[in-house]
Amino acid sequence: MLKNIVLDFGNVIMNWSPDQILNHYELTPKEHDILKDNIFGSKEWPQIDAGRLTEQEAEKIFLQRVPENLQEKTKQIMATWPENVDFYEPMFLTIEAWRKQGLKIYGLSNTGMQFANFVKNSGFGDYFDGYVFSAEEKLLKPDERIYQKLIDRYELDPKECVFVDDLKENTQAAEKLGMYGFTFKIDQLGQLRQFVVEHS
Question: Which SUPFAM superfamilies does the protein's record reference (predicted)?
Answer without folding.
Answer: HAD-like
